[in-house]
Amino acid sequence: GPAVMWFRRDLRVGDNPALLAARGAGGGVVPLFVLDPRVWDAAGPARRAFLVGCLEALREQTDGALLVRRGDPREVVPAVVRETGAGSVHVARDTGPYGRRRDEDVRAALGAEGDVPLEEDGTAYAVGPGRVLKGDGSPFQVFTPFSKGWAQHGVPDPASRPRSVPWVAAGGADDLPAAPEVDYDLLPAGEEAALAAWRTFRDERLDGYAEERDRPDLDSTSRMSAYLHLGCVHPRTLVEEARAHGGEGAEAYVRELCFRDFYADVLWHRPDSAWEAYKPDLAGMEHDTGAAAERRVDAWREGRTGFPVVDAALRQLLAQGWMHNRMRMLTASFLVKDLHQRWQVGARHFLRHLVDGDLASNNHGWQWVAGTGTDASPYFRVFNPVTQGHKFDPHGDYVRRWVPELRGVEGSAVHEPWDLPDGLPEGYPERVVDHKAERQVALDRYAAVRG
Ligand code: FAD
Q1: 228 Cβ closer than 6 Å to some ligand 1 atom
Q2: Residue from 258, 295, 311, 222 nearest 131 by CA
């Protein structure tokens, strides 16, 4: 019988060891994607549209054979094996908490199905989680030493791209949903688009990356995150090509890819840290609850806090399903330290809307801001939303792009619209809190838990 290639977060044909293994089995390859309602139902419109786009692209790459079935993989995968008489199922190892449990169950169900093996080759990371360990065999808990171990371990070469794959169309029901209508430009989806975007970035902006990566007003980062999340491109390919390009920008870029591996490694060793504090030091911290607090959280979600750069970023998230790294740090700090919310509240909102929404990078990014993470920013470091605006959006262009109410304001004055001679522009909200006062509240609560 054929082999089933069960695509999950590896929606590509190149540099895909699991696909090479499925092809090597010799009986043709049934390409399968299972639309898990558990994942789909939690996704906002941008996430859904991007996923559907990537599946459409993969269907084209598989000569139309890609089978999309909606349902619990524990039932769907064995059913497809029965229908096709497949002799093996091939995947890349999923290292997240949910994927690990799911794959154990699927493995057991396939075992009961006449001993059909679930074969794992590769992961979504340059160096697979669990592989980089300290000399004594324990996991790293701090990024810089991890990054040294990671460099020593070495990133494997990309897997070869198969010249052709004998795709087998399984037939039967097709559950590929229509992409939800979104009224803005999404990233072009799929492997070819990912590689084209990467090569443009490499040739035009990688050299300036180390210097310009912190500027949300410039188009200075690679926008590879969503492609990496769904595996339209493997990070090995990016590491190899960045290194071949060379220079300071490339070095800084590889370091960020290593950060992605680090958080996946932390989550692998500590699956509980997806939704609970990695370090319990701040347990017992007081958080705001009640109707007024809820209203402020709603204002945050909608990008109506009255702090321009915070609002610009939160609106970009809703509009595009993406936000610049600096802005993720700033808006997260605002929710945790100005609005005194648990980081999980914001992490959930981000995961729903980010096209790159990723449990390891997102939730550990939030823990970093909240001061509960691995080498976290100390809790007493509170970002000032006005200063951050002036620093990272010096001319105010980023704010004007995303906050139409402030488009009439010139230059950096846009960061303090309450000081404009004509008053606050019409339609733009008053500040929901007094930053200076809330900063003090945050520091007091911090002092209270630290004793
Ligand atoms: P580039 O600057 O071009 O970086 C290249 C790649 O390196 C990224 O695509 C990403 O894969 C990796 N990378 C860069 N910075 C980080 C980082 N701090 N941590 C881990 N990997 C990194 N990244 C996600 O991929 N998914 C998330 O859900 C996510 N949530 C975040 C939440 C918070 C609160 C914070 C502070 C950061 C989060 N990040 C997340 C990390 C980072 O903001 C994004 O990876 C980056 O902004 C994506 O844009 P880019 O591809 O243009 O980045």
Answers
A1: yes
A2: 258
Largest CA distance in the chain: 77
pLDDT tens figures, 176-205: 999 888 877 788 999 999 999 999 999 999
CA dist., res. 217 & res. 213, Å (int) = 10
Cα(376) to centroid(ligand 1), Å:
16
* Per-residue DSSP letter, 334: I
Pocket probe mutation, ligand 1, options 222, 245, 356, max atoms within 8 Å of Cβ: 356
> CA 396, CA 409: separation in Å to the nearest integer?
9
pTM of the model: 0.97
* 3: helix, strand or coil: strand
- Give, using CA atoms, the residue closest to atom 35 of ligand 1: 365
CA 332 – CA 150 distance, rounded (Å): 28
CA atoms of 295 and 166, how far apart (whole Å): 56
**CA–CA dist 76, 173 (Å, integer):** 12
Q: State yes or no: ipTM above 0.90.
A: yes
Specify the residue with its C-alpha closest to ligand 1, atom 14.
256
Q: Please tell me if the CB atom of residue 259 comes closer than 6 angstroms to any atom of ligand 1.
A: yes
Mean pLDDT of 43-47: 90
CB-count exposure of residue 220 (10 Å: 0-12, 13-18, 19+): middle
- Residue 348 Cα to ligand 1 middle (Å): 16
Mean pLDDT of 114-128: 96
Q: Which tokens in the block code for residue 124?
A: 């979504």
Is 225 labelled a binding residue?
A: yes
Burial of 11 (0-12, 13-18, 19+ CB in 10 A): buried
Name all domains of the chain by residue range, CATH numbers in brackets: 3-122 (3.40.50.620), 125-157+190-269 (1.25.40.80), 280-450 (1.10.579.10)
CA dist., res. 212 & res. 234, Å (int) = 24
Q: Is 262 annotated as a binding residue?
A: yes
CA distance 402 to 319: 9
Residue whose CA lies nearest to ligand 1 atom number 50? 223
The amino acid that residue 16 corresponds to is: N
